[in-house]
Amino acid sequence: MTTQNKKYKFHVHGMHCNSCVLLTESEINDLENVTHAKSSLKNNSIEIEGSFGDKTVEEIANELTLILKPHGYTLSLEKETKDKKWSDFKIAIPIAFLFLAVFIILQKIGIVNLVNVSKVSYGTSFVIGIIASLSTCMAVVGGLVLSMSATFAKEGDKIKPQILFHGGRLVSFFILGGVIGALGSVFTLNTSATFILGIIIGLVMLIMGINLLDIFHGAKKAQISMPKFISKRAFGISKINHTLTPLLVGIATFFLPCGFTQSMQVYTLSTGSFMNGALTMLAFALGTLPVLALVSFSSFSIKNNKNSGIFFKSAGLIVVLFAIMNILNSLVIIGLIKPIFNF
Fold first, then answer.
1. What is the sign of the dihedral through the CA atoms of 277, 279, 284 and 289?
2. Residues 252/268, Cβ–Cβ less than 8 Å
3. pLDDT at residue 206, as a whole number
4. Which of 20, 133, 184, 187 could bond to 269 as cystine, CB 3.0-4.6 Å?
5. What is the CATH number of domain 6-76?
């Protein structure tokens, strides 16, 4: 049996965002017989260098798939053939517009406000958090929770780590959101700056929505993310086996590559207020709490459900509609167009 390191390249089925790159690299790099692993979102592939003895390439792919499958990924020698499932839109479109209609009604009676740079209510932040928690962009957070839960469950400690994780996450989103809001107070946003910020938020949301539709695969290359070195440090905290690790992991999720989190962070900067920024990010984090709590105590994963295509297309359409409204409202602020929606 040879022990010489060799290089392999596999196609990764199930990749959809920068979180997937981080998660697949981290899981494979943790193996003792792997010296280096690098994932590519552009090619949906992973390059691995390591020693697998006399195993065939097919056997190696199957072995590594067992490690990645709990997170929703499989390795193959064949490139993934995407089924766009256009038929899902027959159900997704009515769901999206029904959701939007309900949202507008709630806005009319003053419970929530539509997403626009001048005013995002805490109710809106909470709803965006719910969408984010169910979207594929939360895969890396779900992976963190599952791996952390499994580690502490082996030691017979199931409840305390979960409380520390979710508590740390809520507190960090409140405090760090407040810090971002306070930083925004240093800069006085004039009309032009508000317009630019609104367009940026709208475009970020538009790209995320298109990615959720899973029909324009080139769009995922345009999605922004936290600098990789920061995300990798944040993810690496989960590998430390210490009593306070769940608390630190919860805090670290603020810096992980979730596009929804980042769009809310950009908006928070525009609030110019510690309390407004803190409460905005707290509301968003509270929106993600129910699903993450389910993930904490189970292997719940909506993307493995047979109706996942309908859900993601519905969520994608909702996000796209919010993004369009955000962009239109920004154009109204700068005076380029007249108000289209009288909200």
1. positive
2. no
3. 81
4. 184
5. 3.30.70.100
Distances (CA, A) of 326 to 81, 123, 171, 195, 204: 34, 16, 28, 10, 11
Q: How many residues in total does the chain contain?
A: 343
8 forms bridges with which residues in the sheet?
Answer: 48
Q: Which amino acid is at 282?
A: L
> pLDDT tens digit string along 100-120?
787 667 666 655 554 444 456
Segments making up each domain of the chain, as ranges: 6-76, 86-334
Taking residue 242's Cβ as centre, other Cβ atoms within 10 Å add up to: 9
178 C-beta neighbours (distance < 10 Å), count: 22
Pairing of strands 6-13, 74-76: antiparallel
Q: Supply the DSSP string of 235-246, one letter for each residue.
A: HHGGG--STTHH
Token pair in block for residue 293: 């709590």
Q: Are 268 and 277 in contact (CB under 8 A)?
A: yes
pLDDT in tens, 249-299: 788 788 776 667 877 888 888 888 899 999 999 999 999 888 887 766 654
Within the chain, how many helices (H) and strands (E) appear? 12, 4
